[in-house]
Amino acid sequence: MRSIRDRLLGSFTGIDHGFGSAQTATPPDVVLLQQRHTNIVMVIDDTTLDRQQTADAMLTNIPEIAIGIKTADCLPILFYDPDVSAIGAIHAGWRGLANRVISGAIERLCTAYAAAPGHLYAAIGPAICRNCYEVGAEVTDSIARVTDLRGVFRQTSAGKGLLDTTAIALRQMEAAGIPASHLSAVGLCTHCSGGFHSYRAGSTGRQVSYIRLCHPGTY
To answer: Which of 30, 160, 181, 197 has its CA 20 to 30 A from that of 24?
Structure first.
């Protein structure tokens, strides 16, 4: 089964990308990280290509290098700046959202490659949805310190708290300067859509989402 392609990013011929599911195979050449829910951003170049680093976001401008993110309910986020030919991949759970991993990755992309937030395009892949993600006060209190939770958090009649991490990530990307028209989300839930690894559903697996820059005419 082919990885899920986002329509917005799929309109660009300069990249190949895909959001994984439980049925898709990991690209054999993909560069992965030791993910620890940090806000550390890794720049992949000739000196770091062969080293697996502890980080939760990575960037590169090297063609034909696939960079990937492992998820099972957290957000896989892929970035592309067609003006400077640079890409990024982010793993963002609630800790990453609270630790500003998204804004940190955008800032690093701009400084490393002379990119501009207004030129970036980003897509969010399958993640646990707002109807399935029950959280406690620790989570909401942490995220509320950096992002307004109005409209992205609600209490149910049973007293449970439900959080919309996709909406929070979109809000954070807009706040960092990416136009809303440059943002999209696949909209599939890893918990209730079926066909995905989901930590909340008891899965121990992870799907891999990836993005790579392509040489002209190779994709």
So the answer is: 181
| pLDDT at site 144 | 97
Contact 75, 93 (CB under 8 A): yes
The CA-based angle 48-53-55, given to 5 degrees, is: 120
pLDDT-derived band at 216, boundaries 50, 70, 90:
low
Give the residue extent of every domain in the chain.
7-127+173-213
CATH number of 7-127+173-213: 3.60.140.10
Mean pLDDT of 150-163: 89
Query: Residue 112: how many CB atoms within 10 A of its CB?
Result: 17
The residues with which 128 forms a beta bridge, in sequence order, are none
What's the whole-model pTM score?
0.95
Pairing of the two strands 75-81 and 121-124: antiparallel
State how far the alpha carbon of 219 is from the alpha carbons of 15, 16, 17, 208, 213, in Å. Answer: 8, 7, 10, 20, 10
